[in-house]
Each structure stands twice: as C-alpha cells, then as structure tokens.
Specification:
This protein has 440 residues and is α+β, with helices and mostly antiparallel strands. It has 13 helices and 16 strands. An eight-stranded mixed beta sheet has the order 6-10-11-16-15-14-13-12, sandwiched between helices. α5 (132-154) runs antiparallel to α7 (242-260), α6 runs parallel beside α12 and α9 crosses α10. The protein is elongated, with a radius of gyration of 27 Å. Bound molecules: adenosine-5'-triphosphate and aspartyl-adenosine-5'-monophosphate.
C-alpha cells in the first residue's frame, strides 16, 4: 500500500482509503459515540474520528500516550465544520485501524499547549523541535547555509575545514576552552581566523568555512553561545577590502530574498511574530564615526571607542528611521576595538580598515583587512602581549609573503535569530550550548 502524508490528504477525493504514519497529538472523547484524535506528521495535522462502536479499539487507543507514533488506516470524510489552515487538513479521517509503531512514554507537554518559558522548552527540546514552527525554522536555517555555500562557490571560493584543536588562542579578545592533548595543552578554536589567513598565504585565493566556533565566555545573554556555527570567509584582495563587503552583501541579499519567499516564514511568525524586514537595493555603508555622531545628536553620551549593546540597538533604530533599512554596514572601526590582526588605516592609525554588519540593530558579522606584513604583525602582537608560542605556524605564513587580504566571520544563529526576531540565539541552535549547559 501507499503511504500518504497528511499534507496530501486535502488533494484526494472524499471516500478515498488512506494510510499514513503520524503521531497522536491529542485525543478526547467527543460524545457517547465518538472519539476525536488529532494526528500530526512532520508538517501537518488532521483530525481523526473513531467510532465508539469499536469499543475494544477505542479502549486500546485511549491507553496510548500522546506523541506515540502510529500507522493509521481510514477513509476521508468531510468534517461537519471544516477548519482548514496552512498546516491543518480540511478533511477528516474516519479511522478503521490504528497500529502502534512506537509508544511514547508520556509527554511533559503537548505541542499545542507549550509552556512559555525558554528553559522548559529547551529542556524538552525533542518535543519542542517537533512543533511546526521549529520544523519551519530549521528549514530556513538550512537555506541560509546553502545560500552561503552557493554564493561563495559562484564567486570562486574554495570550501575548507580548519582544525578545531589549536596550539594557541585564535581570537585575543574572547576566552578559550583548554583541553588535554596527550599531556600537552590544546585550545578549542575561537574562530578559523589564523587558519583561513594561512590558507590565503598558501595561495588558495578565496576560502570559506562553515564550522563550529568555541567561546568560553561566561556570557548569559540572548546572543552568546559557547559553541556556535561560524560562516567564515577570507580572500586575497585586488584593490580594496570593500571587495569582501560586496561578497557578504551578495550573500545576505540572496538570503533575505530567498527566506522571505519561503512559506515557512509564516509558520515561524505564528510563534515568533516579527516586524517587516527592510533592506535597500544599495546597501548602506556608514562610517563608525558618523554612527557615533548620530547617537550623540540623539543626546547620548558615547565615546569614540566601541559601541555598547544599548547603543548598537539605538543606532539600529536611528538608521531605520533615517534610511529605511534594518540592514547596514558600520565601517572603519577605531583600532582600540579590533584584534591584533586588523590593518590600521595608513593615513590615521586611530582607525582601521574593518567593519561590522548589523541587522535590526544587532551585530551579525565582523571583518576587515588584515595585516599582511610579518614585521607589523609581530609588532602588533608584542604591543598587546601575545607571545609567539603556539603562533609559529601562523607567523611562518607571513614570513613566506602573504598577499593583501581581507575576510569576515558571521554567526549563523544570530543571522537567523535577528532576521526572524526570535529574541534569543538559542532558538536557532538545534541543541544549544551556553554556560549553563551540560550536567554538573
Ligand atoms: P564580538 O565578539 O564580535 O565583539 P559580541 O557580540 O560577541 O561581538 P562582545 O565583544 O563580547 O560581543 O561584546 C560586545 C558588547 O556586548 C559589549 O558592548 C559588551 O558590553 C556586551 N556584552 C558582552 N557580554 C555581555 C554580557 N554577559 N551581558 C551583557 N552585555 C554583554
Ligand atoms: P567575532 O568575534 O566578531 O569575529 O565573531 C564573528 C561573528 O560571530 C558571531 N558570534 C557569536 N554568535 C553566537 N555566540 C557567540 N558567543 C558569538 N560570538 C560571536 C557574531 C559575530 O559577528 N575572526 C573574526 C571574524 C573575522 O574578522 O573574520 C571573529 O571571530 O555574529
């Protein structure tokens, strides 16, 4: 026999004999004569009606816990009051037989009455993930990754995988996880930064990576994970580091266009309502200095250093009001706010050739041109107290003459979370890791 999906049932004529696999989402006795069952598969639900004439079967089904996986055989009927929606079938199934495929041991909540606390939902993550909004969300996330690969592939980038076990910290600013490595110390990579630059020195030209990034920061915020998925790229440049901004801009615009064309967005919005997302045909690239001026004109007392989170959010609002975009690039950061590998502006070393990208006022990307002169790199390291221990291979790549290059890193969970206004990056992570994860 053929297996039907619930989504397909609407397309079949009434009276058709159907057979499908689904979970029992809920069940209730409607009257003396009828039991109602709500069946759910990956994306859709349908109502099943079980006649109490078959009392033995009714009693057996009543013992099954919700979330149990069953094989249903029945006939399509027209319900007295059809309640068709994008995810609920407009037909009803007169159930003949129900076979148990695998029993669930009782669910802490049903997906139709979820507890509202983030912790509780994430504790019962499997159940939470079965919710149609999550099914939709992870399809969108998958599209973002695919679009990254496709856009960069079209522009001549090579996908690489760099080691996550490193001899030294890869990002001076962020904290690092230490692991035992055959009696020596190793560190989990805080980014592919050093290795992707080394690949450019190895004449790969343009490289990208989709991979895990580990940060040992004890930051319990809505935007920090201890393990997240980095979308990284690095490229030799011809004239200007803005060549990197153009590649990322192509990628992000392709994402916005593709995602907002997906029917899954409506499903996600049922659980996470979001405001219209606006972007411009020609992306706004604004200097950091002008951003600070906008904040000062707004009456805020902000230093010409780095932006605090509230200032970033406020700037996002101001930019939306003035330019009508939720997506923009903030360019030419002060050197004080950037890591040692960032190239300073040759005309004024207070500034750098580096940028951050924001959506809805929140950072999703950092990047810039890198120091490619070995002497300058060593000086920068010395100036902030980074020793050469563990950095030998990285420095060797510069002693051999690295081309002028630039690159950037994006946080996948942040792109998804801020674009769809999920409110917390944890929702965009399948099984998230934060400072409170892992049992004691
Ligand atoms: P990046 O690592 O690229 O700089 P990020 O978003 O990870 O970006 P941080 O550099 O760690 O952020 O910090 C940027 C801003 O976030 C700073 O303004 C800092 O004050 C704020 N911030 C960092 N950690 C926390 C925290 N635990 N609680 C509240 N704010 C925080
Ligand atoms: P940065 O440290 O800014 O830059 O990280 C790049 C991007 O990664 C995301 N991100 C995070 N996402 C979730 N949880 C975290 N704890 C977290 N920390 C950062 C953000 C951020 O913009 N090597 C540079 C990039 C480069 O210059 O190529 C780097 O790692 O979206």
């Amino acid at each position: 026999y053929e297996l039907n999906t619930i989504a397909e049932l609407d397309k079949l004529p009434l009276g058709t004999e159907v057979n499908f696999r689904a979970r029992i989402a809920t069940q209730r006795q409607m009257s003396k004569n009828l039991d109602f069952l709500l069946f759910r598969d990956q994306t859709h639900t349908v109502q099943g009606v079980l006649s109490r004439e078959y009392l033995d079967m009714v009693r057996w089904v009543e013992k099954l816990h919700s979330e149990s996986l069953v094989q249903v055989n029945g006939t399509l009927k027209s319900p007295p009051e059809p309640v068709r929606s994008a995810t609920h079938s407009g037909v009803e199934v007169e159930v003949h037989t129900v076979f148990l495929v695998n029993a669930a041991q009782g669910a802490p909540f049903t997906n139709y009455k979820p507890p509202e606390t983030l912790r509780n939902r994430l504790t019962h993550r499997i159940l939470d993930l079965r919710h149609p909004s999550n099914q939709a969300l992870f399809r969108i996330r998958s599209l973002v990754t695919r679009t990254f690969r496709e856009t960069l592939d079209e522009q001549g980038f090579v996908e690489i995988n760099t080691p996550k076990l490193q001899p030294a910290a890869t990002e001076s600013g962020a904290a690092v996880f230490k692991v035992q490595y055959f009696g020596r110390n190793a560190f989990l990579a805080q980014s592919p930064q050093l290795a992707k630059q080394m690949a450019v020195s190895a004449d790969f030209g343009r490289v990208f990576e989709v991979g895990p990034v580990f940060r040992a920061e004890n930051s319990n915020t809505h935007r920090h994970l201890t393990e997240y998925t980095g979308l990284d790229l690095e490229m030799a440049i011809q004239h200007d580091y803005h060549e990197v901004i153009h590649v990322i801009d192509d990628f992000l615009k392709a994402v916005f266009t593709a995602v907002y064309a997906m029917p899954e967005v409506q499903e996600v919005q049922k659980r996470w309502p979001s405001r219209e997302f606006k972007w411009l045909e020609e992306t706004l690239i604004m200097n950091f200095e002008d951003g600070i001026k906008m904040l000062r004109d707004d009456g805020r007392d902000v230093p010409m250093e780095d932006l605090s989170t509230p200032d970033e959010l406020r700037l996002g609002e101001l930019v939306r009001e003035k330019f009508g975009t939720d997506y923009y690039v903030l360019d030419k950061f002060p050197a004080s706010a950037r890591p040692f590998y960032t190239l300073k502006d040759p005309e004024d070393p207070f500034w750098t050739r580096s940028f951050d990208i924001f959506i809805r006022g929140q950072e999703i990307c950092s990047g810039g041109q890198r120091v490619n002169d070995a002497t300058e790199l060593r000086e920068n390291m010395r100036a902030i107290g980074i020793t050469e221990d563990g950095m030998e291979d990285y420095l060797a790549a510069f002693d051999l003459g690295a081309p002028p290059h630039a690159g950037a890193g994006l946080g996948l969970e942040r792109i998804v979370a801020w674009m769809l206004e999920l409110g917390d990056v944890r929702y965009a992570s399948l099984f998230h890791r934060d400072p409170k994860s892992l049992p004691e």
